[in-house]
Write a structure and sequence with these properties.
The chain is built from 4 helices and 5 strands, in the order H-H-E-E-E-H-E-H-E. About 15% of the residues are buried. It has 2 domains: about 45 residues, no CATH class; about 70 residues, no CATH class. It is α/β, with parallel strands linked by helices. Helix content is about 40%, strand content about 15%.
């Protein structure tokens, strides 16, 4: 190998090392020491949260379970009218809604509007295709 080729390789190695060092500094700055390997509390310490550290709002939160399908609306597994379901969810403050693909067109929009008007926090799963969230 000639002197010229050796110098070119040395330059490329130095340049590669500098680029790698810059990338590592950027990653360290963005991750703040935590590399996201799981089991942590999002603070980067890696310690799992205990039950005492869970916020009170999440600890005992109750939600009413609604399901909207071709058969209609059900509340906690029992058939229900929209007014009764909205009132039950208003008392609970939160609703978990499952909307299947065979639900009547527009039924989800009407239910969502009623829940929003009652001030109910809604978590939606399985929205029918084309249904607006």
């Amino acid at each position: 190998m000639t002197e010229r080729k050796r110098r070119r390789w040395v330059r490329w190695l130095i340049l590669g090392g500098v680029v790698a060092a810059i990338v590592l500094v950027i990653l360290y700055a963005r991750c703040r020491g935590g590399w996201g390997m799981g089991g942590g509390d999002s603070s980067g310490t890696g310690k799992p949260r205990t039950a005492a550290e869970v916020p009170a709002a999440d600890a005992g939160a109750t939600r009413c379970a609604l399901r909207l399908d071709a058969a209609g609306l059900s509340l906690d597994g029992q058939p229900a009218t929209q007014d009764a379901a909205v009132e039950a969810c208003r008392r609970a403050g939160k609703a978990e809604v499952v909307v299947t693909g065979d639900a009547r067109f527009g039924a989800w929009e009407a239910l969502r509007a009623a829940l929003d008007a009652a001030g109910v926090e809604v978590a939606v799963r399985g929205v029918a295709p084309g249904a607006a969230l």
